[in-house]
User: Fold this.
Amino acid sequence: MSPGRARWVAFSTPRDYAQAAASENAIKTLTKDWAHFARWCRMKGAEPLPPSPEMTGHYLADLAAGSGPSPALAVSTIDRRLSGLAWTYAQRGLTLDRKNRHIATVLAGIIRRHARPPVQKTVILAEYILAMVATLPLALRGLRDRAFLLIGYAGGLRRSEIVTLDVGKDDTPDSDGWVEILKKSALLTLNANSGRREVEIGRSSKEQGCPVHALQRWLHFARIDFCPVFVATSRDGNNALETRLNDKHFAFDQTHRSGRRHPGRPAGGEPFGAVFRSLAARQSREFSRGRRALCPETAWPHFGRDDTSLPAPPRSVPGEPDQIRPPIAFSPQAVV
Assistant:
């Protein structure tokens, strides 16, 4: 074992495994939800412990109605906070029964009065991904962003899954997966709450749209052979740093620069977030067609080599307005 790897020893105690039962982002969300509930209890002159179905029902009603500067929350957010309370109580050896008559009745009333149909996310096709890739600069930061986009699209991955990838297994303690680059493909191993899963991404015959080639170029020029795959770059975008990217940083960085190229596209995190949220629609016919256009021989999650139908990214004409189409008119709510 190399000295670098020796610093990061795999989980060895029950406490380590228990802490790894939920992702870091999930723990942060649960902690914030519990802090909000505890603050609400103090404002009402009550104690959060032990669990009280009646008090929980009043809390849910306040979330649905909104109070003071706090706006009313969506039904999905209220349900998530209720689940978070039940989970936090369980960690303390207590039980909050969601099926309790008081809680169930209040929640049913909230759903009936405030529930809205889910917002359908527009799927993104390969031609839009290639259009985005065509706008990226040739500096090191552009190589990183190109690899990020193509790997995320071809593998159907979330941003949070991509940024936690390491070059090797157990390179860092905060890793949730690693990458193996093979002769004909790249094999991504991801650690999820439901268990470990593997995503194999095949090479494309055209380098401009090949996810594996883009990943190799980024790792080569960034001189990365250990620790996180996707790291921050220097201000000029020409040097790789040691800091692992987080999903929010990358979303802002990517859309901020692409927003300048497409003045009509809203700035901020919406477009790039919607790109990766749309990947969840894997069952749609358009999504399947778009991925086969990128690597058409085989179906998801493994893609073929002989890519004869890959559309060329649109180019700008000198002296004319930018002809590269923005990917999609995204809704502000479509943020991962």
Summary: The first helix runs from residue 3 to 6.
